[in-house]
Write a structure and sequence with these properties.
Rossmann fold; 12 strands; 6-stranded mixed sheet; about 30% strand; 8 helices; alpha/beta; single chain
Length: about 260
Amino acid sequence: MATLQIRDLHVSVITDEAPIEILKGVDLTVASGQTHAIMGPNGSGKSTLAYSLAGHPKYRITSGTVTLDGQDVLAMTVDERARAGLFLAMQYPVEVPGVSMSNFLRTAATAVRGQAPAIRTWVKEVKGAMIDLDIDPEFAERSVNEGFSGGEKKRHEIVQLELLNPRFAILDETDSGLDIDALRVVAAGVNRFSAQGDRGVLLITHYIRILRYIKPDFVHVFVAGRVAEQGGQELAEQLEAEGYDRYVRAAAPAGAE
C-alpha cells in the first residue's frame, strides 16, 4: 500500500514584498485506495497545498515534510514528483498554443512511463479515454486547451489522469465551472481511476455536489492554513447545511471581529 504523508507542513507564498505564510502546520495522510476531500472557504490554503505538493516555484516550504512511501517529495524536482506518481489537475488549466493534445499526452506518457508508447496502441488508448470523457476525438489534433470551454478543459485534465495513471491524484476544484452533465462525466472518470484499488485521490472542493458522485472516505475542513476538523461524508453534509462560519470564527485571532 502506497502512502502520501504530510507532516507539520508550513508554506509561504512568494510576493514582491515579503513572503506570506499560508499553510501553518498541515498534517494529512493519504493511502492508496482512499479518497480524501478537502473543503474550506476561499483563502484557507487548499490550492496552496495542491501546488506545493506539485512543486510550484511560487510557494516556499518553510518547514515540515512530505513523503511518498518514505521518499522525500520536497527534495524532488517537479518532473521527478510526476514520475514518482503525483498528478495535479489544476483549477485553471493553462492553454498551450502550438502543441497538439496528442503530442502533449504522448510526451507526458513517455516521461512518466520511461519509454514511448507504441503508436498503434497509444492511439487506441487516447481515443478510448476521450470517448469515455465525452470529448470529440478530433480534439486530439487541437492545441492543448486552446479555445476549449471550461468543461472541456476539466475533462481534458481527467483524460490526462486516466492515461498517465499516477499513484496519487491531486484534484484542485475539478468541479468548478462544470454543468451537471459535465460533472457526472468527470466524476465517472475519477471513479474509474480510484476503482483500481491501489490509487489515492486528494479532492479539493468548495461544494458537496461533486461528493454526491465521488464518495470520500475522509473529509477535512481547511481553515486559516490548517486542518480544523475531519470526518466522513457526514461532515460534508454538515458543511453544506451550516457553512464554514463557526470554523472561521474559531480560527480568528483573539479580539478580532
